[in-house]
Design goal:
Helix content is 17%, strand content 25%. By secondary structure, it is an alpha+beta fold. The chain has a single domain, classed as Metal Binding Protein, Guanine Nucleotide Exchange Factor, Chain A (Beta Complex), CATH 2.170.150.20.
Length: 163
């Protein structure tokens, strides 16, 4: 099954969102700093779009930025994350949206770690994907196969080899 049919936004998925998830993903909201469910999550697994289920970020790319939101150095699959110019609130920022769910996820900034990359510091992006927990659903590594993300399990083996 290709990404277009496997990961998509449906009215049913949107109707199951909590009020906070709806405000963040559908109305471009931002949760309050340090209030999100995944700010301090240290479990191994992946973070997927709460609307479409498309895989967005891996736990091995998550780090504590001190910002109050889950922060990642890069997406799992670049094409699942769209970067869009955002000039709202009198600021110039880059918004991050999920490709298939069209969910507002957060913003990306060029102030991330320059020494952290799964395949070594030479490939570190220096980016900080600052993401709202309300836009995400966490899938623990032990549930990935059952939930249809088994094809991504190899990423964790590669990550262990380079750490």
């Amino acid at each position: 099954m290709n990404d277009q049919t496997k990961f998509r936004k449906t009215q049913d998925a949107v109707s199951r969102l909590t009020p906070e998830q709806y405000r963040v993903t559908q109305e471009n909201g931002t949760e309050r700093a340090f209030t999100g469910a995944y700010v301090d999550n240290k479990q191994t697994g992946i973070y997927v779009d709460v609307v479409s289920g498309e895989p967005l970020f891996a736990s091995f790319d998550k780090y504590d930025s001190g910002s109050g939101w889950p922060s990642f150095t890069q997406p799992i699959v670049a094409r699942h994350v769209q970067e869009v110019s955002d000039e709202s609130l009198g600021m110039r920022r880059v918004e991050v949206r999920s490709s298939h769910g069209d969910s507002h996820l957060g913003h990306v900034f060029p102030d991330g770690p320059r020494d952290k990359a799964p395949d070594g510091p030479q490939n570190a992006t220096g980016m900080r994907y600052c993401i709202n927990s309300a836009a995400l659903r966490f899938v623990p590594i032990e549930d990935m196969e059952e939930e249809g993300y088994g094809d991504l399990l190899g990423l964790f083996e590669m990550s262990e080899e380079t750490s």
